[in-house]
Write a structure and sequence with these properties.
Layout: H1 2-18, E1 34-38, H2 43-51, E2 67-71, E3 74-75, E4 96-104, E5 110-115, H3 125-138, E6 143-144, E7 146-152, E8 162-168, E9 170-178
Antiparallel strand pairs: 1-9, 2-7, 3-6, 4-5, 4-9, 7-8
Length: about 180
């Protein structure tokens, strides 16, 4: 985990150092966007989704399930990038980082975007402005929904094991680097 923290810290420094130009004109629409890094899904959300019992057996613990696997939601193509907010742009404006938690329904639609405790973020009033920019971009995002795969042992000797796949709601953490 320390290696990841060092990598993120190094990337933050590089992004900050690369953005120290005071002679730029106000960007046109579409300039000053953000890039993102997909962080691993929050462990508690993955465990919750994988532990969810099936419909009729909701109260019983099934001993017939040999293994349960969680497959995280994945973006369908590139995610629309949020724009660097115009009201925060000024000559010499620096890069900003915001880590968000995206809640995704079982159909791959974004339900909610909120700040995440999983990574670095710019704090204060600017955090809310950057979060609003991410929420605007999130209206265009689509995901392959997360799935829970349950493997069951063969019902009789020589038979193939069973596999049941179910799409589920999930959460993903994304870290955005806004560059003016």
């Amino acid at each position: 985990m320390r290696g990841v923290a060092r990598l993120v810290s190094g990337l933050c420094w590089l992004a900050f150092a690369a953005c120290q130009h005071s002679d730029r004109a106000l960007p046109e629409a579409g300039v000053g966007a953000a890039s993102y890094v997909l962080l691993s899904p929050p462990e508690e959300a993955a465990a919750r989704a994988a532990a969810k019992p099936d419909g009729d057996d909701a109260g019983a613990v099934s001993e017939s399930v040999a293994a349960v696997f969680f497959q995280a939601a994945e973006p369908l193509g590139l995610l629309a990038a949020p724009r660097y907010p115009r009201d925060l742009w000024r000559p010499g404006a620096s890069a900003a980082i915001l880590t968000v938690r995206v809640r995704i329904d079982a159909h791959g639609q974004v339900l909610d975007v909120a700040t995440s405790p999983a990574g670095l973020s710019t704090h204060g009033r600017a955090e809310d402005v950057f979060l609003d920019a991410v929420r605007v971009a999130a209206r265009e995002w689509r995901f392959q929904p997360a799935r829970v795969l349950r493997a069951t042992p063969p019902r009789e000797p020589g038979a193939a094991p069973g596999l049941h796949a179910e799409t589920v709601a999930s959460e993903l953490d994304l870290q955005f680097t806004f560059v003016p």
